[in-house]
Amino acid sequence: MKIESVTLHRIRMELVSPFVTSYGAYVDRETIIVQVVNSDGNIGWGECVAFATPWYTEETVQGAWHMLQQFLIPPLLEQEIRHPNELTSLWSGIKRNSMAKAGVEMAVWDAYAKHQHKPLYQLIGGVRDEIKVGVAIGLQPTIEHYCQLIDQYLQQGYERIKVKIKPGRDLSLIAELRERYPQLPLMADANSAYTLANLNDLKQLDPYHLMMIEQPLAADDIIDHAKLQSNLNTPICLDESILHAEDVRKAIQLGSCKVVNVKLGRVGGWNEALRIHKLCLDHNVPLWCGGMLETGIGRAHNMALATLAGFTIPGDISASSRYWYRDIIMPEVSVDKGSVRLPDKPGIGFEVDEQYIASLTLDKLMMR
Ligand code: MG
After folding, report:
1. Catalytic residue (one of 101, 132, 162, 164)
2. How close is the Cα of 217 to the center of ligand 1, in Å?
3. pLDDT recorded at residue 19
4. Residues 141, 147, 152, 153: is their CA dihedral positive or negative?
């Protein structure tokens, strides 16, 4: 398979409601949509999920654009590839920049699946055509705001809720939510807002049977996470700490977590995500698919990821309408009774609304 051209579309989409984490608030989402065309004329779509600012990892939209244009796309256009897994060696001399790599890799996998006339989820070995999904709620000003949102999401069919926490906005929030929703599958994401000095505070969350607490400590604190996990009953899930399969191996060996969150962008794309999946399956560590405020294109890839056998926990793969007034794929992703069904069409299985993308575009670059 020869990739004949790669087009980058930098777009901005307004969020339905601001998304607030321990790092700050987002009112709109800037992202890079990657479009590849192969020699058969198949079009593949991917999404670089870097944010406009480097709060989640060091990558940014502008930085990723530079990496894609200068370093990642040129070698891809120069040679023939037999399989998308060859991209790992093609880029082996380029350190990190996982989200930039993943954006292209996703598009190449989509084109390859279309070239094989197969849905992407079947090509990667997915075992189900319907996945359980949950929804993430950003930090809210009052408990009433949380309850209002949770009631609304439960009504829309979501069956697992995740809330963001940070020091001072944790114990009372979780206690109150647990009292109001005794049986709700509930998890908390700290986005690295704590240190080991907070061990006793985090221990107080144990009685509220959270499904997990996600990334309590810093991204590079894999040893401290092991110490924390040995003191907590609540399972720790690592998100920001897991950049590739080697991190998972070390985390399992040290006992730093009991659950792993995979985001295609954070781990550099499908090839690494599939390695992480295999490793977790071998060690009986459950996985789930995280979210990065993706457009429908990133969301469609996430849906395929969540069909793998080890993804037994509902992911942050909400309906398009959770984030967008209008999505860039057709049909939009919708949730029914806590589940999303995968389309039975080649590749990611959705049509991409190129006209709408054009109307959202801030910058466009075609390389061939
Ligand atoms: Mg997270």
Report:
1. 164
2. 11
3. 80
4. positive
**pTM recorded for the entire structure:** 0.96
Catalytic pick from 263, 337, 345, 364?
A: 263
Q: Could you tell me the residue ranges of all domains in the chain?
A: 3-117+353-367, 122-341
CA 240 to ligand 1 center in whole angstroms? 7
DSSP structure class, residue 58: S
The Å distance, Cα 84 to ligand 1 centre, comes to 27
Is 316 in contact with 337 (CB distance < 8 Å)? no
- Write out pLDDT tens, residues 13-47: 999 988 877 677 889 999 999 999 999 999 999 99
The CATH class, in words, for 122-341 is: alpha beta
Question: What is the separation of C-alpha 241 from the centre of its chain, rounded to a whole number of angstroms?
Answer: 14
The position carrying tokens 């399972």 is: 235
Rounded distance from Cα 114 to ligand 1 centre (Å): 31
Q: Collapse the DSSP code of 336 into the 3-class scheme (helix H, G, I; strand E, B; otherwise coil) and give the result.
A: strand
What are the φ and ψ backbone dihedral angles of 274, each rounded to 5 degrees?
Answer: -70, -35
Please check the confidence at residue 348 and state whether its pLDDT lies above 90.
yes
CATH value of 3-117+353-367 in 3.40.50.1820, 3.30.390.10, 3.40.50.300, 3.30.1490.100: 3.30.390.10
Strands 3-20 and 361-367: antiparallel
Q: How many CA atoms lie within 13 A of 176 on its CB side?
A: 13
Question: Any catalytic annotation for residue 2?
Answer: no
Cis (ω within 30 of 0) for the bond into 331?
A: yes
Euclidean distance between the first and the last CA atom of the chain, given in angstroms as a whole number: 15
Q: Report the share of the chain in percent with pLDDT over 90.
A: 94
Give distance in angstroms: CA of 31 to centre of ligand 1: 18
Cα dihedral 296, 300, 301, 306, rounded to 10, equals: 130
337 is catalytic: no
38 SS3 class:
strand
